[in-house]
Design brief:
Blueprint (H helix, E strand, L loop, with lengths): L1 E3 L1 H8 L3 H8 L3 H8 L8 H11 L3 H4 E3 L6 H8 L1
């Protein structure tokens, strides 16, 4: 799964949701959906605007978390 770290980056930059909304041109409601990991997708243009406004890289805003069990790990634990 992809974890969204927008809230962490916002806290580090000490920026409010409303201020970020103004800078990015996305409604506070839509940013809140993204921040709370309720969104299903993000446009590259939105990601670009977020990175510009927060002076960060896409990897600062998102990270991949493996939520699938690893077959090799499961098998070695059973032995």
């Amino acid at each position: 799964m992809i974890r969204i770290n927008l809230d962490v980056v916002m806290a580090q930059r000490k920026i409010s949701l409303n201020k970020l909304s103004e800078l990015v041109g996305v409604t506070p409601a839509n940013l809140s959906i993204l921040k709370n990991e309720k969104g299903k997708a993000v446009r590259f243009s939105t990601l670009d605007a977020l990175c510009k406004a927060l002076d960060c890289q896409p990897g600062d805003l998102m990270e991949y978390i493996d939520d699938e069990p690893n077959d090799k790990t499961d098998q070695s634990m059973e032995e």
